[in-house]
Amino acid sequence: MKKTTGFTLIETLVAVSLLSVAIVAPMSLTTKSLASAYYARDQIIAFHLAQEAVETVRHVRDNNILKTVSGTPTDILKDIPVGRPFIISTLDDSMNSDKCNSGTCPPLQIDPTQTFYGYGSGWTNTRFTRAVEVQAVASDAEVPQEIRTSVTVSWRTGSFQTRSFTIRQNLYRWVEDDT
């Protein structure tokens, strides 16, 4: 009888098991890394969308100040809905509280060129929703001297739960206006 050497079935199974562990572990790590990268990307977008809304409210306030300075007395908080959630389209500084029913605002949309977030006809809904709310901060005067702008951006990435990010900024009535 001739004696041949080779791998036994047990040796083969052990080798396949070790190879499987060596491949599956890095693949699992890669999957978790990609999920974290997507979450970080969406969190950065949410932060920028929230900051954009705060800056738009500030812009409307400052634009009203310029109107007052240029001879047209204007309440510096004119056109800023106070006390109810609203949406902002930063392309034209429009603020609309009619679209936020029961505190739920529609999802932000993106233009066909995938450049601008906002609301427009023919635009595509995104996974981001931005709700803006302005509240008067208690003061002794009839006219609020300070407002608190709160912007909440919520989104859903893949199979993760819905995430949200809120940013708050206080704005002051730092000039005399027609009120």
Describe the structure.
It is a single chain. With 179 residues, the protein is of the alpha+beta class. The chain has one domain (9-172). Helices cover 34% and strands 26% of the residues. The chain has 1 helix and 7 strands, in the order H-E-E-E-E-E-E-E. The strands form 2 sheets. Strands 4-3-5-6-7 form a 5-stranded antiparallel beta sheet, covered by helices on one side. It has a two-stranded antiparallel ribbon with strand order 1-2. The N and C termini lie far apart (110 Å).
What's the arrangement of secondary structure elements?
Elements: H1 9-69, E1 87-89, E2 94-96, E3 107-110, E4 117-118, E5 124-136, E6 146-156, E7 162-172
Antiparallel strand pairs: 1-2, 3-4, 3-5, 5-6, 6-7
For the structure shown, list the relevant keywords.
five-stranded antiparallel beta sheet; alpha+beta; 7 strands; two-stranded antiparallel sheet; 179 residues
